[in-house]
Amino acid sequence: MKTKRILFGLLLCIGLSTVSCSSDDNEGETLIPLEGKWNLSKTGTVVGGTETLIDAPQNQSGCDRDYLQLKLDNTATIGDYDSTVSACALTTQTGIYSRSHNNLTISITGGASTTQDIVNLTLSELKLRDASGKITVYTR
Question: Where in this chain does the record put each Lipocalin-like domain (predicted)?
Answer without folding.
Answer: 34-128
